[in-house]
Amino acid sequence: MTLIRWTPAKELESIRRDMERLMEDFVEPFGRRRAWLPRTAGERGVIAPNVDVYDRKTEVVVRVELPGVEKENVDLTITNESISIKGELKKTEGVKDEDYYCSECSYGGFQRTIPMPVEIDASKAKASFKNGILEVVLPKLEAAKAKEVKLKID
């Protein structure tokens, strides 16, 4: 029987590599990929655009980051309760996979549904797309608008 010398440094190196992998998977979602969504073989994550949703007294505004996406490749569906953004970020034509030295950009289809905090009037919604930012202004229904009432204190 051959004895193998145990060295704690090898164990520590293995733990360090595992921790680096864990941190990469943790940090990755804060970009445009979401690591916790289902993955297929060879896929690093699913593209999920970042959004801001905020209130302007009579309307709700949704801003979506879509850098590199053409507005023709974006499909917007609005109901009184939610907004769905669907589209595709296409890879540069004419460049083969084997020609890349480095490829960190996200390509492919994406979809995101955002529930609305209040009921909105989908028929009066307006959308604009400028510099890779989609902005959707959604007027609130009358019943959802905050009403201010002055009350006399006795």
Describe this structure in words.
With 154 residues, the chain is α+β, with helices and mostly antiparallel strands. The protein has 2 domains: 8-48, no CATH class; 50-96 and 103-143, Immunoglobulin-like, CATH 2.60.40. It contains 1 helix and 9 strands, in the order αβββββββββ. It has one helix at 8-27, and strands at 33-34, 46-47, 51-56, 59-65, 74-78, 82-89, 108-115, 126-130, 133-139. The strands form 3 sheets. It has a 4-stranded antiparallel sheet, with no helix packed on it. Strands 5-6-7 form a 3-stranded antiparallel sheet, with no helix packed on it. It is flat, with a radius of gyration of 24 Å. The N and C termini lie far apart (94 Å). 12% of the residues are buried.
Keywords:
154 residues, alpha+beta, Immunoglobulin-like, 2 domains, four-stranded antiparallel β-sheet, three-stranded antiparallel β-sheet, 1 helix, 32% strand
User: For the largest beta sheet, what order do the strands appear in spatially?
Assistant: 3-4-9-8
Structural class: alpha+beta
Tertiary shape: flat
Q: Radius of gyration from the CA trace?
A: 24 Å
Distance between the termini: 94 Å
Order of helices and strands, N to C? HEEEEEEEEE
CATH topology of the largest domain: Immunoglobulin-like
Number of helices: 1
Largest sheet: 4 strands, antiparallel
Number of strands: 9
